UniProtKB/TrEMBL annotation:
UniProt note: domains: Consists of three domains, a large central CORE domain and two small peripheral domains, NMPbind and LID, which undergo movements during catalysis. The LID domain closes over the site of phosphoryl transfer upon ATP binding. Assembling and dissambling the active center during each catalytic cycle provides an effective means to prevent ATP hydrolysis.
Source species of the chain: Kwoniella pini CBS 10737
Enzyme Commission number(s) from the entry: 2.7.4.14
Function: Catalyzes the phosphorylation of pyrimidine nucleoside monophosphates at the expense of ATP. Plays an important role in de novo pyrimidine nucleotide biosynthesis. Has preference for UMP and dUMP as phosphate acceptors, but can also use CMP, dCMP and AMP.
Annotated region (LID), positions in chain: 201-211
Origin organism lineage: Eukaryota, Fungi, Dikarya, Basidiomycota, Agaricomycotina
Protein name per Swiss-Prot or TrEMBL: Uridylate kinase
Cellular component GO terms held in the UniProt record: cytoplasm; nucleus
Gene3D superfamilies in the record: P-loop containing nucleotide triphosphate hydrolases
Region Disordered, residue ranges: 1-50, 264-295
Ranges annotated as biased composition (Basic and acidic residues): 31-45
PANTHER family: NUCLEOTIDE KINASE (PTHR23359)
Amino acid sequence: MTVIDKVKSAFTSDSPETTTTSTQSNATPSHTEEKNVPSHPKESNAKSVPETAVLSDKAVFDQNKVTVIFVLGGPGAGKGTQCEKLVNDYKFKHLSAGDLLREERNRPGSTYGELITEYIREGKIVPQEVTIKLLENAMSSTLASPPNTTNEWLNGKGRFLIDGFPRKMDQALKFDESVVKSSFVLFFSTNENILLERLLERGKTSGRDDDNKESIVKRFRTFVETSMPVVDYYRKLGKVVEIDSSPPIDEVYEKVKIEIDQRLNSSSTQTSNTTQSTSTTNASNDAAPILAPAI
Ligand SMILES: Nc1ncnc2c1ncn2[C@@H]1O[C@H](COP(=O)(O)OP(=O)(O)O)[C@@H](O)[C@H]1O
Ligand SMILES: O=c1ccn([C@@H]2O[C@H](COP(=O)(O)OP(=O)(O)O)[C@@H](O)[C@H]2O)c(=O)[nH]1
């Protein structure tokens, strides 16, 4: 029995040991059957249960200190490209859910390596416990060793761009509940022809086994069926900032900066120039929310 078979059989078990939450999505793609990762896989010895499968039932981080912006958009919309630019200008930590999954897949001894490989190749959404725990772990270690000494990262504070997540309703609700409530969503929209063209081009050098036409088609389907409901959910809450990502990269980024500046207390220039000493000057702002009133 392969690891995938073992995990799948655990998923389909009726055992009460299988983790369930009240936040399950109705938006499961029609072509796949996805269940949660069991918190205590039946056949495992204790060491094989990865930390990645146990989620808290209350928020791990204080939302007054830790700001999370979700970055969503179809595959190839330019999420990673724009995030990289924002990191330079606004001192965000960029966490790509897809990158974290690929790292976990490549980690020797990972229980979920084969499972992640199959889900990514099929364009399906990896069970939420794995992805959320990877994100939470990455956030914890970033906060423990902040990427810089700017005011945004003093005294336990931090600001994260979470890229390519949440892609399914259960993830969205569970992250808000168990990690920290997100502030808003940057949503990059464009059309499928552009996405396809970009992904095929990226596929020439990315080394990703899902940047091929067959996987891309599946990813598009998952995006429409499973991820767009997440965008719609946040849209109803007034939390979506939609940006057309069809124009050239720098043009898109100009729009992104305008939107971000409106929502953060400091502009990119101010933030970029902030040093430890100016942070001290601003220390009285510590408890102030980083974000302007809800959009
Ligand atoms: N606005 C843009 N115009 C043209 N090409 C772009 C644009 N944004 C991104 N790209 C290119 O498209 C590909 C996909 O972008 P990427 O940021 O990796 O997308 P995502 O993270 O949304 O999957 C990359 O090769 C990138 O260089
Ligand atoms: O929260 C997530 C994010 C990504 N993925 C998987 O990782 C793949 C690649 O995602 P990534 O964001 O790296 O790339 P994109 O599809 O946006 O180009 C997706 O198709 C999914 O299979 C996932 O299961 N859950």
